[in-house]
Amino acid sequence: MTIFYEGWQEKEYSCGICDWKGNGGESSRGLFYRKMYLELFCPGCNSFLDLIIFPESAGCDAMSETLAEEQKQALLEQEEQMRQYRERCLKAPDQLPELTDEEFVLLWDQVEGDTQIRNGDLVIWSEPVAYEGFERYERIALILKEKYGARVRDLQPTDRSMLFLHGDFASSLDFVAKVRKELFGVE
Fold it and tell me: 22: which strand partners?
């Protein structure tokens, strides 16, 4: 996943299915979802290559000068909700507990309005659930790898977490599979 859009057209890609090689500008483009996410596909076989994430400053909040007062107020309320959400989110490995197991598989679970990261029955992290949380999944997986290294063998989504993890964004299935393969070697 490419988090920022700068230089995505020059970024080199290779398809693992049909051996196509080229840059982002030569790839096939999928949906430009919510004016924040752009899907890239292989032009040879249409396999998913990448998801480009545009910064929020490129979205509608950059146009706040043109909004009516009630729209500005709604935007401020939304920003406050996001601030409160971010305060409860995992940001760094030192927020996680030490685990003594030599190897373990962690679960990405959902209980009511919280995403839980579990080692068996032990909840090692909990934060508010995000609809279409596949991007959050990757960020948490990277923090888990930083904390636990090769000892963490997978971050396996549970059945009850699937709706909010993937939402209506069909390509998120491939995205999560790609993250699991790259970080944990899971096919």
Answer: 13
